Amino acid sequence: MNKIKKIGAIFALFLAISMPVPTHAQDTEMKDLDPSEMQFIIPPETYDTATVEEVTDNGDAQDVRLRINGGEEKGKFINVQHGQFFSITEDQKVSKGETVIISKGTSGDMVQYMIQDHYRTPGVLLILLFFIAAVLIFGRKKGFMSLVGLSLTICVLIFFIIPAQVAGANPFIVSIIGAFFIALLSLYLSHGFQRRTTIALIATLITLIISAILAIVFVELTKLSGAGNEDAFFLQFGELGHINIKGLLLGGIIIGALGVLDDITTAQSAAVEEIHKADKKLSQKELFQRGISVGNEHIASLVNTLVLAYAGASFPLLLFFSVEGLVPLWVTLNKQYMVEEIVRTLVGSTALIFAVPITTWLAAWSFTRKRS
């Protein structure tokens, strides 16, 4: 109970300083449209789910009969031509019995319904339940506490980092502050209030500062503006045009680095403590040397893991190596979207390398400072 009270106090403090209030904006993505057809598309006003009752496939389009599942029109049957304004792929086609997301737009006496997407929420919930069950079965109490930490991490992202950025705060500064609270809450919840956890937290925060400096230097050296990502590029227009997209890039690098830092710092701190328990006669220097030997193995494996993680997340970008045949490889590698991913990977990997000796030294100093 004392642990829960301490965590509750920390989280209450965090909520108390989280002043920005989120604002909501509705955006619509329309692609592959002929400009002459734009006049027939009415901007969506409401969204709902509907069940597909009948489907007639017409090649690049489908004639679909739908039954609306909610809202004021619940139970109403409507007919929609799916693919009327753009060609749809096989993956975008719908089938009888499935649930889809529809939009409704009105302009005067004209009402237009469109199928926006497959309804994926039930599938996501099943995957989430499977994940939670696996964590609880194999992690037991620590697994439960890690889920609580994950929930608080999501709260920090949703109720502080994102709203603060929407309100106009510097994304880089906001991400650093948010990363501090995420590390504080998740580490103590997952690993408990003990010396090794405090060492891991201090090492994580020191390495985060180093990561922030590296991110700034690397981004400046490569002259990145933050517009290499399509989503970030479009943030420059409309209601969110005030957001500093370079700061957004830097903030994203920091949050991404935090995801692997807490793993290496907690593991390294625990390894040094176990070595100390096995032989309490070891001096600080000897304990550091043995701990760094273990840490080097972590570096060798985690750097490769981090590169593969970023490569997997950016896999479509790698396809440009094969499709841009008329552009030399060095030109493709020089493009902003490529350099952004390279910088993300290098900042995270460099942070891991620094985290090992920092954590090992702090742990060796702490565990040999007072002998029992």
What does this protein look like?
It is a single chain. The chain has 372 residues and is an alpha+beta fold. The chain is built from 11 helices and 5 strands, in the order H-E-E-E-E-E-H-H-H-H-H-H-H-H-H-H. Strand 1 (46-57) and strand 2 (62-68) form a beta hairpin. Helix 1 packs antiparallel against helix 3, helix 4 (195-221) packs antiparallel against helix 6 and helix 7 runs antiparallel to helix 11 (336-369). The longest helix has 46 residues, at 121-166.
Largest sheet: 5 strands, antiparallel
| Beta-strand residue percentage | 5-15%
Strands of the biggest beta sheet: in what spatial order? 3-2-1-4-5
Low-confidence stretches: 9-39
Total strand count, please? 5
Q: Specify Rg, calculated over alpha carbons.
A: 26 Å
Show the helix and strand layout.
Blueprint: H1 2-17, E1 46-57, E2 62-68, E3 77-82, E4 99-107, E5 110-118, H2 121-166, H3 171-191, H4 195-221, H5 230-234, H6 245-278, H7 284-313, H8 315-318, H9 320-323, H10 329-334, H11 336-369
Antiparallel strand pairs: 1-2, 1-4, 2-3, 4-5
Helix pairs in contact: 1-3, 2-3, 3-4, 3-6, 4-6, 4-11, 6-7, 6-11, 7-11
